[in-house]
Amino acid sequence: MSARHSHLLVALDDSEGAQQALSHAVAWAAQTGAQLTLLHVVQPWGYVTGFESAMAALDEMRPLMREAGEKMLAQGCTQALAQGVKAKALLWLPGQAAPRRLWDIIDQEAREAGADLVVLGRGGTGAGRAHLGPVAEQMLRHASLPVLLVGRPG
């Protein structure tokens, strides 16, 4: 990472790759004084795939998904604070608008937060290190901001 990046946005989910991304971003912010924003996007299965039966269950699932997202963000903020870094937490919940691509949501939220670098964990379970994961791949192709992709250990 370049010293010119002064505001990092880390997209968090429950994956090992996201935890690696968070660790790298916290270390960078601790060394440079960069701002840190943590983002969790609630994307229920039906919202991503568009199946109406799953969409109908969204209202029932929303409190649980919100609670899980808030817990994940709180843990990330605690991890950052342990390194002397204050982090801002953002929880994105789907509304009544048409479904959006996850990478597009991350990109927009990063821009709106004033970030100048998006830090993502490597996702997916395909052909070893060659598989980036669909969100990471789309962010690398289409993001309006620079993206740092943090690989899984091993």
Q: How is the biggest beta sheet arranged?
A: 5 strands, parallel
**What is the level-2 CATH architecture name?**
3-Layer(aba) Sandwich
C-alpha-based Rg, rounded: 15 Å
Helical fraction: 40-55%
Low-confidence stretches: 126-130
Class derived from helix and strand content: alpha/beta
Distance between the termini: 21 Å
Q: How big a fraction of the residues is strand?
A: 15-25%
CATH topology assignment = Rossmann fold
What's the CATH H-level homologous superfamily? HUPs
Number of strands: 5
CATH class equals Alpha Beta
Task: Characterize the overall form.
Answer: globular
The number of helices is: 6
Q: Strand sequence of the main sheet, in spatial order?
A: 3-2-1-4-5
Q: Mean pLDDT, rounded to whole units? A: 83
Order of helices and strands: EHEHHHEHEHE
Count of domains: 1
Report on the structure:
The protein has a five-stranded parallel β-sheet with strand order 3-2-1-4-5, with helices on both faces. It contains six helices and five strands; from the N terminus they run βαβαααβαβαβ. It has one domain (7-150): Rossmann fold, CATH 3.40.50. α5 crosses α6 (134-142). The protein starts with 6 loop residues before the first strand and ends with a strand. The chain is of the alpha/beta class. Mean pLDDT is 83; it is low at 126-130. The longest helix is centred in the middle third of the chain and has 25 residues, at 58-82.
